[in-house]
Design goal:
The protein is an alpha+beta fold. 29% of the residues lie in helices and 36% in strands.
């Protein structure tokens, strides 16, 4: 019995050796076959007989050896020579997709694919490839190519006499001397038939027509009416707006009920707070209108064109001609000569004659070099160089060349720019495909 067991064990070991040897021979054979196929194909491609090289390289690319990438590279080159024949571009992109789907896909594959789609005037596909490549490889080269191409845009067809900054998906627009509302991309929503219109918030906006102040919804239906007299109103946000009655400003809600607190001036609410003026000095008031986040002791509060001042717990205040940054009520940086409120992480600030960008620690992120600037929106900031406006990225690179008479911040992938024909809207190609922005 013991002798029989020894024989069985010996036979088993022999079989294992034979199987192992056979596998080794087979693997070596595959490598040799693949090398022969690549060599035969090379002879055809040297003579520019690409059509005969295709089946050889396709077979070679089917093996899984150390030379497979070499075979695939040669096959892609042959496909490129045959692009004028039907089906070969599809074969080429299918091979690219196969290579990009591998767990160990090299950054160069994503760069090659993006270059191809750009050459084919398919920027959306190129950006999709580059976003995947950034996520998968973390390559700085792929990220740089993504940054270099992500800001392509198309110009809309709508024209307006004037526009404001976009807010809550809508923008105030002026046409034929009257105001209305449009989407952030410039498509009309509320007709331009009002003497004034506020920002759109919580499904409504305040409007002025023939001396009457009311509120309308996004379909231009009246949803509230002011019972009483007011000379003017401010922008609507956080279910609050302001009304000018006689020489004072009072708060009102979205149904136009008038509050009792009075201010000399008050701006638009943002993040629950608004700049307000009492007894000749400015501070920052909470949404109830009764508590000061920043005491009213400054000569002014820096606001954007909508009237907002606070973002990221940061606000710029003025003392005389100097501007200081407060974060959480504490002075962090300054003095500056001017500033814009924070947005998208950074704020535009001015020192001397030039503008740059800082974070909430007061650290300079982009050096002082622009003739004017707005704070960032969706990774882009409008900047002026000489007489023309363009856009800079967070890398400090000009990604939309200065060419416009004026420009405003991006919102929902679009931004208003002023041309000689009026205000138009540019929309980033990347945003149009529905991917949003990284």
């Amino acid at each position: 019995m013991k002798r029989g067991k020894r024989i069985l064990i010996g036979v088993g070991c022999a079989l294992l050796l034979i199987v192992s040897w056979g596998a080794a021979v087979t693997a070596k054979s595959n490598t040799e076959k693949q090398s022969d196929l690549i060599a035969q194909a090379a002879a055809y491609t040297e003579d520019e007989i690409y059509i005969l090289a295709v089946p050889l390289l396709e077979e070679a690319a089917g093996y899984n050896t150390a030379q497979t990438l070499e075979a695939e590279a040669a096959l892609k080159e042959v496909y490129r020579h045959l692009f004028n024949r039907s089906g070969y571009q599809g074969k080429y992109t299918a091979l690219l997709e196969k290579q990009m789907s591998r767990d160990d896909a090299a950054p160069e594959i994503f760069l090659e694919a993006a270059e191809y789609y750009l050459d084919q005037a398919k920027p959306e596909d190129a950006l999709t490839v580059l976003r995947t490549g950034v996520d998968k490889t973390g390559s700085e080269d792929v990220r740089r190519m993504y940054e270099d191409n992500r800001y392509q845009y198309s110009m809309g067809t709508n024209y307006y006499q004037d526009v404001t900054l976009a807010y809550a998906g809508m923008i105030q627009v002026k046409e034929n001397g009257l105001w209305g509302l449009a989407t952030a991309a410039g498509k009309g929503r509320v007709p331009c038939e009002y003497d004034k219109v506020s920002t759109y918030s919580n499904g409504r906006a305040l409007v002025l027509k023939d001396g009457v102040i009311s509120a309308v919804d996004g379909s231009n239906n009246r949803v509230a009416l002011l019972h009483g007299n007011a000379e003017d109103f401010g922008n609507l946000a956080n279910k609050r707006a302001s009304l000018k009655i006689a020489d004072s400003w009072v708060l009102t809600n979205e149904v136009l009920a008038i509050g009792s607190l009075e201010f000399e001036e008050i701006g638009m609410y943002s993040n629950g707070y608004a700049p307000a003026k009492q007894s000749g000095k400015w501070g920052v008031m909470d949404v109830s209108g009764s508590e000061w986040l920043i005491p009213a002791e400054y000569d002014d509060i820096v606001r954007d064109e909508l009237g907002r001042c606070l973002a990221q717990d940061a606000v710029f205040v003025r003392r005389g001609q100097q501007v200081f940054l407060l974060v959480g009520g504490e002075q962090i940086a300054g003095p500056f000569d001017d500033a814009r409120p924070f947005s998208d992480g950074w704020a535009a600030v001015k020192k001397g004659e030039k503008w740059g960008f800082i974070d909430t620690d007061g650290s300079v992120k982009i050096d002082y070099q622009f003739d004017d600037a707005l704070s960032f929106g969706q990774h882009l900031a409008a900047i002026r160089i000489g007489d023309d406006w363009g856009y800079v990225s967070r890398y400090g690179e000009i990604v939309i060349e200065p060419q416009f008479l004026a420009a405003k911040s991006f919102y929902d992938g679009s931004a208003p720019v002023q041309t000689r024909d009026g205000w138009r809207f540019i929309t980033l190609t990347e945003y149009m495909e529905g991917a949003g922005l990284l």
